[in-house]
Design goal:
This protein is an alpha/beta fold. It contains 12 helices and 15 strands. The protein has a single domain, classed as 3-Layer(aba) Sandwich (Rossmann fold). The chain has a 7-stranded parallel beta sheet with strand order 3-2-1-4-5-8-12, sandwiched between helices. Strands 9, 11, 13 and 15 form a 4-stranded mixed beta sheet that branches. Strand 6 and strand 7 form a beta hairpin. The relative contact order is 0.14. The mean pLDDT is 96.
Length: 339
């Protein structure tokens, strides 16, 4: 099968492309190589199978249209590209809007004009639900928790875009959903929680699980924004790719749907707890400093993943402890990639 991976040199994209290449698929990677580590991920992919790399930007509608017309026989499209950090969106909301709204619109229009019949997966975010300030939260010694939502946040949660990033990803999210309703594209929206894993070149404002591990191993400063008790359900990238495979295999049911995809209530961790884990791995406490809360930060976000379980039989297999060990060992064995 031919698979188009938009944003294919990024963290999730390169892992997806590698999986497809190694199972014998033809992979077309579209990327502008703007993310740290993108060139390294591309070189890693070049030796794995039938790869075509097209360096372009999703904001260039003419180029995206030409690519989709050339590859209208694709059997799957993953749209993973875009601006990914809340902090960057606050500093430069125009670029964030252009990448996440116009870029996503360009992808959808290109797919429509090329009569793409393949499933199209869109990587959305839990930030479309906003700060959820009305949600009851209790404070523990090292983490916050929901007071009345033991299974986490479902897809029925009201949308409340908060921050330019939340607005831009939310707009893209809704465009993707509506292009199924209006034009019949086989779109699926994944509202993802924190994804982590191999080849994640995490930075201070994005990819916090990887960033903390990288910083701890390389002796770089770590800053906790807020009090460090913020909780997320984290999902190892291999489990995310399994979810994509399962959703595509059940496209008759999943087409046009929106799914919260994360580690779920069984795979939660706070920032402080991650630092405690790293301290145990290194046999000494990991130093950090505290700073002000970031705009739109959620004290707790945990995905209710029951809809994904019901519709395509998916659930995470890799526990928090196992996933952190896998990523820690990978970073430790590949320190030269982070110099």
């Amino acid at each position: 099968m031919k698979i188009i991976v938009i944003g294919g040199t990024g963290f999730i994209g390169s892992n997806a492309a590698s999986r497809y290449l190694n199972r014998g698929d033809e992979v077309v990677v579209i990327d502008n190589l703007s993310r740290p580590g993108g060139n390294r991920n591309l070189e890693w992919l070049r030796h794995q199978g039938r790869l075509e790399f097209l360096e372009t930007d999703i904001r260039n509608a003419d180029q995206i249209n030409r690519i989709f017309k050339t590859h209208r026989d694709a059997g799957l499209v993953l749209h993973l590209a875009g601006q990914v950090a809340v902090t960057t969106s606050v500093l430069d909301p125009r670029s964030d809007f252009e990448a996440n709204v116009i870029g996503t619109f360009n992808v959808l229009e290109a797919a429509r004009l090329a009569s793409i019949s393949a499933p199209i997966i869109f990587s959305s975010t839990n930030k479309v639900y906003g700060a959820m300030e009305e949600t009851g939260i209790v404070e523990g010694e090292d983490r916050y928790a929901y007071s009345e939502l033991p299974n986490g946040i479902s897809e029925l949660q009201n949308l409340d875009f908060h921050s330019p990033y939340g607005c831009s990803k939310g707009a893209g999210d809704q465009y993707v959903r509506d292009y199924h309703r209006i034009y019949g594209l086989k779109t699926i929206v994944f509202r993802q929680s924190c994804i982590y894993g191999y080849r994640q070149f995490g930075v201070v404002d994005q990819g916090w699980v990887a960033w903390f591990i990288i910083a701890a191993l390389l002796g770089r400063p770590i800053t906790l924004h807020g009090d460090g008790k913020q909780v997320r359900d984290i999902l190892f990238v291999d489990d995310l790719l399994d979810a994509i495979d399962a959703a595509v295999a059940n496209i008759g049911r999943t087409s046009g749907q929106v799914y919260n995809v994360g580690g779920g209530p069984q795979n939660v961790i706070s920032l402080r707890e991650l630092l405690d884990y790293l301290g145990r791995k290194q046999d000494h406490a990991v130093p950090y400093t505290l700073a002000a809360w970031r705009t739109g930060d959620q004290r707790v976000y945990v995905s209710n993943i029951s809809k994904a379980q019901e519709d395509f039989g998916w659930a995470p297999k890799i526990s928090v402890k196992r996933g952190l060990d896998l990523l820690y060992d990978w970073v430790s064995s590949n320190r030269e990639l982070f110099q």
